[in-house]
């Protein structure tokens, strides 16, 4: 884990239906590392559970804040946060990492959040306001009960447009975004996959829209028809075969080689691994085009090898 940070749960509360907020303070008196809006940390919940959560506090604050939606059909991380963690518990996190960074320039900024996607968007709104930017926020939720941080957003007045599906049905997204100036804006969005797909369609039809997305889930494309088997070699020379229908992460885990991972869908960056030799077949949603072209790192939860062998720094 990069830049291990020890934290203590200083406070906890419910901020919306199925959404629990944790305030994390330094566990050893050392100030928490700085971060920028859009950043997230990997939170080690147990030896078997590490999950990635966006920071939704104000950058520069002496505590961190995360908010977690309980996923009843998930893999256990959110249930642990909701039902096992208590005030006073000590945990380990990574240093903050940002693959969804806000850039404030001359262009209008339109922020879009769907459900728990408000977490990285909240500090972006604060930063845009502090910078004097021309910005707006479209805050979407299934219902009023499911809408988090409504009171905080109210302080921005008409810069924030809210919509809940129980009040008139699903939003006409294109009309709403056009009304906010999205057709020639930098649009930053986080939310469920259908919302992000609709935003991609919106941007494709408006060439002056610059769209930046933060995803909760991947596209289920870790294993494809026609994939081939290959060998992963680790730094000590051990070779691990990867079957055509198997991910690198699964093959490594079955061989007893533990790689820190969270989403297992190529969207969080937790499992990022240095490539020593070989050409990765990138299938993540984290690395930039330049990083992909360099071939210096990969996400073994979804990415593969274009050839017969790849050597990883493990």
Automatic annotation (TrEMBL):
Keyword Transferase on entry: no
Keyword entries, A-Z: 2Fe-2S, Flavoprotein, Iron, Iron-sulfur, Metal-binding, Oxidoreductase
Known cofactor(s): FAD
Gene Ontology terms for molecular function: 2 iron, 2 sulfur cluster binding; metal ion binding; oxidoreductase activity
InterPro entries: 2Fe-2S_ferredoxin-like_sf, 2Fe-2S_ferredoxin-type, 2Fe2S_fd_BS, Beta-grasp_dom_sf, FAD-bd_FR_type, FNR_nucleotide-bd, MRET, Riboflavin_synthase-like_b-brl
Residues of the FAD-binding FR-type domain: 2-103
2Fe-2S ferredoxin-type domain segment(s): 228-314
Top-level division of the source organism's lineage: Bacteria
Pfam families: Fer2
Protein name in UniProt: Ferredoxin-NADP reductase
